[in-house]
# Entry
Amino acid sequence: MRQRTRATASTRPWCALLVAGLLLAMFGDAPEAAAREPAQAARDVPDYDGRPDAPPTPGERALWIPRVLLAPVWVVNEFVLRRPLEFIVLAAERGDAIQKVRNALTFGSGGRFGLLPTALFDFGVRPSVGLYLWANDLPTDGDRLRVSGAYGGSDWWQFRVRERIALGAGTTPNTPYAGRHVRFEFGYEQRPDHLAFGVGPDLGVAPLAVAYEQKHLYGGTGLEWRFGALDGFALSVEGGRRRFENGDRGIERADVGLAELGDDPQNRGRTAQRLAGAPDGAPIRNTFTDYRYVALDGEAVLDSRSADRTEPGDGARLELGVGVGRGTYLAPQEQAFAARSMFSDPALERTTFAFVRPRIEGGLFWDIDNHGRVLSLTHHMEWIERIGAAPLPYVELPALGGEAPLRGFVAGRFRGDSTLATMLRYTYPVWVSIDAFLFAGAGQAYGERFSGVSLGSMAGTFGFGVRSSTDRDAAFELLVGAGTTRFDAPTFGVESVRILIGATRGF
Amino acid sequence: MTKRSHRGGLPRSIVWPLVGLTLAWLALGCQRSTLRPFPLAPPMLEDHDRQHVEAMPEPYFSGLIWDFVDQTFFRSLNRYLTVDATRPSVNVNAWDEVPDSSWFENRLGAFELSEQTLARGACPENLLRAEDGPWIVTAAKPNGANPGFIIRDTEGRGWLLKFDGHEQGERATAADVFGSRIYHAAGFHSPCNIIVEFDPSVLEIADDAEAEDARGRDVPMAQHHVQQVLDAAFVLPDGRLRASASLFLPGIPLGPWRYQGTWREDPNDVIPHEDRRELRGARLLAAWLNHFDAREQNTLAIWYTEEDGTQYVKHYYLDFGDCLGSRWAQDGLSRRFGNAYYFDAAEILLDLFSFGLALRPWDTVTVNEEAHELGYFDVEHFDPVRWKVGYPNPAFVRMQAEDGAWMARIIAAFDHARVRAMLDEARIVDTAFDAEVMRVLMARRRLILEHWLLVRSPLDAPRISADGGTVCLDDLAIQTGVLAPEEVRYTTRFFDGTSWDRPRWSETLTPGAGGQSCIPLLRDMTPRPADVTSAGAPEGYAILDVVLTPHAGATPVPPLRIHLVDDGATFTIVGIERPGDATPPGGGR
# Structure
């Protein structure tokens, strides 16, 4: 008897839900219909053809079986989602809230000024939300001001401002990036979720990552000569300061590595050594620290493709760039910070480092059917040449992963004196201004001047995603990618999975 | 103690009886289908939904955003969750037609209407003319995609003036006028839209006139508001401006009517709108003109008062400015109009997971080379079966073959001369544009007819000859040139109740001249036994099936099924059906 009672109790909610769903399905009215009772009785439904109704067929009767089974889902869709949302949206529309929100977020004639919320979920690092502000034709026609800010916690935030001022003719509202511009930019970033995996290709099958915090203040200016949206020349100078500290503990792989080590500074130091690819007890190479820098960057991009999306996307692209940087490791007043940091090396204070960092990227693009289905093969090479004896900061080394090639890996997964990567990518349109893409490729970070390059030492990446293509300043992107171990690893397989959803940063 | 089923859940003592009951319930539907005879009565020609209503309904507020979200996401999902098997339209009379109502009045297709009548549409004799005096501007909307203003003419009538913009020549105003004529001729209620050509000096701003600023606020109107609107006007060679003028509808606006459900406040409104044949069939009319913006915001319910004081809700279609190839700022969207919803999850998923391998219509569509004003309005990418409105329309998605065939029979009546007469009302200045509109329209009409006229029998207008012994028919497929008369064959089957499964006689005929054919009904045959009155059909009840075969070897089109009553002296048609297959009336056993 007790058992039957329990059975009845367990089935009662389902039965009640089914009955309720069916009753609502049969007799439920939309809110607008139930809004006001009619003052006059409705007329009878006419008998239009004078015949009795046809009896339901077996098929029509059988449809009630899935209807009953789906009733709970219907109840949720109708009463938990649709009707409350209807109430809210209609109330907002009646109150002209949409226009008010639009007015609050855009201003100026033709939406010259605007504000948009942004969000980014890049699993493996902290999610963030932010605001993106645009102002066109400010201060004069053809100029574009962009401001973005993002917040990922009290110790995680970014802020960036860029003003592009049009110089002379060639810039129109329809081709805002063409012509000559002078660019001013400054920003600040404080993020404790950067990941350091170490340097070079020999980090093991599943390398440890350590999260570090970077505080980066920077500013600069540049000149751009753009022939179109895709190609041109640019020359810029930037100065800034970076300092580093222990980062998040909330990152899974870092947790594993650090949990084993506890809070013992010596153990942490050894971890840093391992990440840097150095044996225990050896001097730490490419350590993190606190430094100032100034950098000059030149870039030439030649792109034969049309920026007009209605035109075929065939073509070739060659990008040549070189950065020249000089910096100074900072000074005794940072001693307290350095002592706390597992990354700092007091011996480096006040020494000066310098480097030249060339990069070459070339790509071939084939619009398979002249309708936006583009297959591309791109090759990326970047390396750094030291000037002087001082070691270079870890973050100045060329990197792969994240927004850089090998996108199936998290940002900074590969760092070294040189990096190279080859990517095969297929892009195809799936909706208005939204493209999907598939990619696969291989690459690795190597030693000085590509020493140690071999096919077996490379890691592979593959994945797919969708991305908006309307605004090059702020694109929405969804990406699911994976990265493999080195091809010659004893247990070759997928090393990591990367999922990214949101508005990509930057202008 | 009750045993529980193997995996838990309902007890077996409940499950098995439930299964048994369900099977028995299903088996009830397996009874042999029986003949459903029509009564010996004239068909319903008027649906009396224009009865006096005591209280004016509260105006309905239609949310622009909500309607899109609701139809695109929630209601679309609900259709799957409720396993929404579309049933036949409700308001179909015994002659497979739609009775006149507050929604629809049979016009072209039901009656012979002169080209002059069609061209006039819903317009009165005296139209708006610049030479008759000043037009008093009472309100303006200078911003947005459709700038325009409201004027009051010398007779005190209100008109909404809309302009073309700078992108597509005279298209927008031409579409607004032409679309209103087509919808009116097809039987719908539409406003009087006309082209006006005027000098700006005819405009005078009313003292209390207001304009809507860029932020949606009403501000006192100034000359620059008017000028801002006029800047969007198409300028004629003589310097005058061109606009479409829409006469205010007679009555009190109650907001849009909806494409689903009924309006409880209107006691005349008892048929779910999505089950109204005319609203379902309007999908074909929209497809023809590429009226992708056929949503509830472009409709209007009017509190209408007849001369005798009878008041009721009358239903109008409005705003046809998107027809004939409107392009939006988002080119990718414009390319999809007619072939996909604004947000079309099915198409997106198809493209996403087919990795772009399928070439889609919007990939290959190009701006009309003969008349760029027409944008992507063309013939080559028009699919009359798969055509889609901007976002799901509850009536359109429930259109069944018989609804489409019904509207196709109306569209069949829009011959070249009639369309020409209505397009002339659009007063298109650019002759190349005008010629191309005509060409594309007639070609799209043919594509519609080639499919939809033949999904059900294209035989129409059956009538009994004067001697009462012959039934004559019009073959719309032949009359519109869709089928070649020399290839068409008709197979007739006559059932008189001796058996509803085996015809008493059957024969094959060729079409008569002009697509009109007559079939003698009186035959020398054994009279039906007096005691045979199958399926409750009245004495003398008979059925004539006429099956059309387009050409030798082709699949026959399902029959036109004419229900007759023979009183011994003459036959009377009591009903018409266009079933979806050729199964005999008794079910075929």
In short: Chain B has a mean pLDDT of 91. The CA atoms of residues 274 and 394 of chain B lie 6 Å apart.
